[in-house]
Amino acid sequence: MIDLGLSKMALIGAVALIVIGPEKLPRVARTVGTLLGKAQRYVADVKAEVNRSMELDELKKMKETVESAARDVESSVSTAASDFEKDWQDATSTASTALAPPPSFPEYKHPKKKWRLKQGAMPNWYKARAGVRTKALSGAARVAKYRPHQL
């Protein structure tokens, strides 16, 4: 690459000042600056594109290796499954001829009639003695129950 030091930059600036002139030099400097900026952006874009393509190639290679490993695992699992099925068939065919069928048992029935109903810890005889209501009564039923009987 070109080695531009401070002395070479000063020499280029002095020549440009003489050739271009002091009136047009700022405008030319701005134009050269924008062109250099565009060139740098273009070079950076090209570098980024090259890096992306290299990473894409690496990812494709990695994908191929993972797919081949998955195929190998799948084939080994399928062979193991077929071997297991063969062994199972052999074991069940010999066991069915040698063993009697398993005994059948009656269906389980819970001993309590209403075993899902929640029962309180306080016994019913205590509730009756203490006057605890065990059933909810509507207002009309309560009035009818406790109204004095007229003869």
UniProtKB/TrEMBL annotation:
InterPro entries per record: TatA/B/E, TatB
Membrane topology: Single-pass membrane protein
Compartments where located: Cell membrane; Membrane
UniProt keyword Membrane, yes or no: yes
MF GO annotations: protein transmembrane transporter activity
A GO term from the CC aspect: TAT protein transport complex
Region of interest (Disordered), residue spans: 74-112
Keywords (A to Z) from UniProt: Cell inner membrane, Cell membrane, Membrane, Protein transport, Translocation, Transmembrane, Transmembrane helix, Transport
Pfam families named among the record's database cross-references: TatA_B_E
Domain of life of the source: Bacteria
One GO BP: protein transport by the Tat complex
Presence of the UniProt keyword Cell membrane in the record: yes
Assembly information from the UniProt record: The Tat system comprises two distinct complexes: a TatABC complex, containing multiple copies of TatA, TatB and TatC subunits, and a separate TatA complex, containing only TatA subunits. Substrates initially bind to the TatABC complex, which probably triggers association of the separate TatA complex to form the active translocon.
Function: Part of the twin-arginine translocation (Tat) system that transports large folded proteins containing a characteristic twin-arginine motif in their signal peptide across membranes. Together with TatC, TatB is part of a receptor directly interacting with Tat signal peptides. TatB may form an oligomeric binding site that transiently accommodates folded Tat precursor proteins before their translocation.
The family this protein is said to belong to: Belongs to the TatB family.
Name recorded for this polypeptide: Sec-independent protein translocase protein TatB
Name of encoding gene: tatB
